[in-house]
UniProtKB/TrEMBL annotation:
GO MF entry, a single one: ribosome binding
Native species: Oreotrochilus melanogaster
Protein name according to UniProt: MAIP1 protein
GO biological process: protein insertion into mitochondrial inner membrane from matrix
Gene Ontology CC annotations of this record: mitochondrial inner membrane
Amino acid sequence: TSPFAWLRTRFYYLLIRLYFDQEFSIEEFTRGAKQAFSVVSKLLSQRKLDLLDELVSAEVLQVLKEKLSLLPESHRDALAADIDAIMYTTEGDVRIYYDDDGRKFVSILMRFWYLNGANLPDEVPGETKVFQIVFGDESTKEKRHLLTANYEFQREFTEGAKPDWTITRIEHPRLLE
């Protein structure tokens, strides 16, 4: 990320701690986001959308139902990310905003890079090549794809609101489009 974006996100984390949650820690949030990403991606892969009600917004679930019904099995398999297969995680955009009723919200976009052994084609039509990593020698090669996903987490900080983060955007480029 650029130095400006890094400073901007750190400034937002400071605002979150000062005005919304004095115990907020980006390290703790990132650990929780990784766990949520792993659980949600596996449930998506298995098409168990009914188990996502408390984790994912209703609007996102509706879109996912439509997209998953059209997805080939290999692409569905590639959605699943084991927590140990997450290679890199970074924060994207951080937003603090108020709606027309005066409710306070914070949203944090997280980007994940993970290894997956799904049987994907070498080239995904209309896109760039999917990165592949081969483990082992020639007789026991295991091919893995380095895939990316973007999940946006949102929490309402209005007094009396539940202190839960909800996923309000799910993107798996080249897989879930």
